[in-house]
Amino acid sequence: MPVNNEIDYIIKHDTYNGWEYQCWSSGIVECWYTESHTATCNDTWGSGTHMIYYDYQNGAGAIGGIAYPAGLFKTKPYCRLTWTTNNSGDSWIGQHRDGDADYAPKAFVFRGTSGNSSGKIHYYAVGELGSFEP
Question: Is residue 102 one of the residues assigned to a domain?
Fold first, then answer.
């Protein structure tokens, strides 16, 4: 983070293995990635919400969890996942608690009825720059 009212600025903005990233003079790095998925939602949760098979304790059945570029983050970054779909009906994702400095968290898909949901997971992560040198 900037100290003593220093101006923070982007020192590098590029892509690597599908990730778009930018490095800041303060030592912060942020990155974006989008990947497509089709999830079959047949397990019922509660009274009528369907989800893909998913074991929350170990992430079995989850989708995503893509690797960050090696060494991009020094420690586990903040990561936010969003979901977009063109399917009729609602579907949304939940973010698993896994993920670390090397991998983005996995996700699971919910929908109100059983069936397939095709869409894209959008990743956004920000944290302290590690040893990454493209």
Answer: yes
Q: pTM (2 decimals)?
A: 0.82
Amino acid present at 112: G
- pLDDT in the model for residue 100: 93
In a domain, 2, yes or no: no
Strand partners, 67: 103
Quote the pLDDT of residue 125: 97
Place of tokens 């992560």: 125
What is the model's pLDDT at position 63?
Answer: 77
> What is the Cα–Cα distance from 104 to 3, expressed in whole angstroms?
29
pLDDT of residue 112: 74
Query: Is 7 within a domain?
Result: no
Note the pLDDT of residue 12: 95
Degrees, nearest 5: CA angle 19-119-110: 115
113 has pLDDT over 80: no
